[in-house]
């Protein structure tokens, strides 16, 4: 299958990968015919890119970051527990958290098990999801990316559970932020921005009182918007004053935020998001942690059309975990002319690099 912009799809083409909502329900099955009406609906839902069936890439399949069963259990747990916490916060009730620790610990364990079995780099575009509530799916994605970094850094089991719980709960404070503020398409007013910023303190206040939730997890919620140069919030902490867990979650948080499709903006591609993170190295993000993340994520997602430095055009067919900037490419054009497709492993040709991605998916379009 091939990754394309819906603007470039011709009527009658077949969907290569199912589209879900964040309840795990299939909205459009693999193999569905993409009619003008369907494409219009996808555009309305804010989906800019999809996988289509393509004869030249029919053997290409994605490896999901985590199992569908794990994903759905995680989303259900996050929705249920976050909603319970939010209801009690609005009523100024004390949330007991009796089942919270067990439920989230099971989810973190399941994600870890899946990631340890997955020998591939993490692909941000392995699923196309229509979000009913972005906070829930964002919390799951941030947890997956965070644990990917933790594995790369050789954290022990205790550390991975601590940071996993911190990641999955990092945005729980947003449950008290008005939805119209969270989803506002335009620039936030000063007061609205303060409402959003308050979620870090709100999350900390809830989590630090809950039994069986590590205090470090509460500090992840408190510090994930802090930045190395002191430009973050809520305390304006700098450097080593910020816990490493929070520094890692900050990277995962920003990456998922900018690569996710929202009602008010289009997503970046992974390599663009990584460029954004690298632009903040030393001032905002720890360089060694950004580099650890780079080693865990697919820079160029499978199915993406790219141009190489020798002017050949091809489609990404496989990732190289050792060097994500140099995947395996299926060449489809040479000197502007279609050729019989053949594969080239850029790991064997380090002098050849990707210099351009398909125009339809370029940053200017997203």
UniProtKB/TrEMBL annotation:
The record, for InterPro entries, names: HD/PDEase_dom, HD_GYP_dom
Q: Which branch of life, at top level?
A: Bacteria
Segments forming domain HD-GYP: 113-309
Q: State the protein's name.
A: HD-GYP domain-containing protein
């Amino acid at each position: 299958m091939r990754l394309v912009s819906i603007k470039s799809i011709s009527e009658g083409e077949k969907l290569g990968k199912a589209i879900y909502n964040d309840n795990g329900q299939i909205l459009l099955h693999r193999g569905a015919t993409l009619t003008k009406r369907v494409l219009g609906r996808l555009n309305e839902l804010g989906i800019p890119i999809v996988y289509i069936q393509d004869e030249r890439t029919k053997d290409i399949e994605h490896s999901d970051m985590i199992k569908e069963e794990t994903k759905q259990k995680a989303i259900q747990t996050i929705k249920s527990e976050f909603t319970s916490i939010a209801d009690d916060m609005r009523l100024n009730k004390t949330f007991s958290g009796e089942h919270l620790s067990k439920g989230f610990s099971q989810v973190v364990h399941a994600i870890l098990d899946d990631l340890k079995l997955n020998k591939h780099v993490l692909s941000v575009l392995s699923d196309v999801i229509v979000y009913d509530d972005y906070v829930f799916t964002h919390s799951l994605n941030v947890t997956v990316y965070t644990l990917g970094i933790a594995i790369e850094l050789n954290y022990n089991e205790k550390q991975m559970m601590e940071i996993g719980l911190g990641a999955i709960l990092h945005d729980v404070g947003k449950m008290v932020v008005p939805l119209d503020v969270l989803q506002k398409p335009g620039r936030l007013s000063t007061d609205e921005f303060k409402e959003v910023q308050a979620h870090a303190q709100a999350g900390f206040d809830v989590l630090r009182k809950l039994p069986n939730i590590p205090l470090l997890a509460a500090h992840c919620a408190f510090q994930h918007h802090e930045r190395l140069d002191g430009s973050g919030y809520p305390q304006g902490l700098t450097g080593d004053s910020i816990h490493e867990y929070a520094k890692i979650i900050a990277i995962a948080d920003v990456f998922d935020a900018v690569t996710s499709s929202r009602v008010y903006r289009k997503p970046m591609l992974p390599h663009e998001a990584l460029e954004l993170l690298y632009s903040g190295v030393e001032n905002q993000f720890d360089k060694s942690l950004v580099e650890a993340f780079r080693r865990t994520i697919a820079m160029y997602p499978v199915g993406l059309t790219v141009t190489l430095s020798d002017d050949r055009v091809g489609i990404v067919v496989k990732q190289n975990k050792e060097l994500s900037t140099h995947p395996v490419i299926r060449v489809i054009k040479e000197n502007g002319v279609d050729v019989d497709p053949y594969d080239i492993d850029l790991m064997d040709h380090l002098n050849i690099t990707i210099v351009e991605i398909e125009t339809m998916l370029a940053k200017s379009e997203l």
